Amino acid sequence: MKAQVRFISTNDGESLEDVVLEDPDDVDIWITVMAGPVGGPGEESFQLRVRSPLSMTRELNQWGPLHERHMVVVAKWNPHQIRSFINRLFTEVEGRDWNEVGERLSRLGYWEFEDYKP
């Protein structure tokens, strides 16, 4: 089984293409990727933080060492490049069933069912 990206937006629901940054080199945005099984119903959310080195440097200078998970680093804000990269990352993941695919995708983005215990 493989994953298919249904859509990508900011966590506020804004299209990536509609995001206007004061400085495109200074990126720190949380995005939501909705993905589900190829050819099957349903979708689940995965959240990723998109950051640039400039944003990270500012935070390092203010707070010291960083530990980041579920992050994509970009040189500058380019929504088409980011969308293409995320689509490629997510569609390369395979598993025996959707739960296994979801667990593997959770290494890329924070899965809404990450750490879920029934």
Describe the structure.
It contains three helices and five strands, in the order E-E-E-H-E-H-H-E. Helix content is 27%, strand content 26%. With 118 residues, it is an alpha+beta fold. The radius of gyration is 15 Å and the shape is globular. Strands 1, 2, 3, 4 and 5 form a five-stranded mixed β-sheet that branches. The chain starts with a strand and ends in a 7-residue tail after the last strand.
Features:
118 residues; alpha+beta; globular
- Amount of beta strand: 25-35%
Based on CA atoms alone, the radius of gyration comes out at 15 Å
Unreliable stretches (pLDDT < 50, length at least 5) are none
Compute the average pLDDT: 93
Describe the sheet with the most strands.
5 strands, mixed
Compact overview of the structure:
The chain is an alpha+beta fold and 118 residues long. It has helices at 53-63, 79-91, 98-105, and strands spanning 3-10, 28-37, 44-51, 71-73, 110-111.
Draw up the topology in text.
Blueprint: E1 3-10, E2 28-37, E3 44-51, H1 53-63, E4 71-73, H2 79-91, H3 98-105, E5 110-111
Parallel strand pairs: 3-4
Antiparallel strand pairs: 1-2, 2-3, 3-5
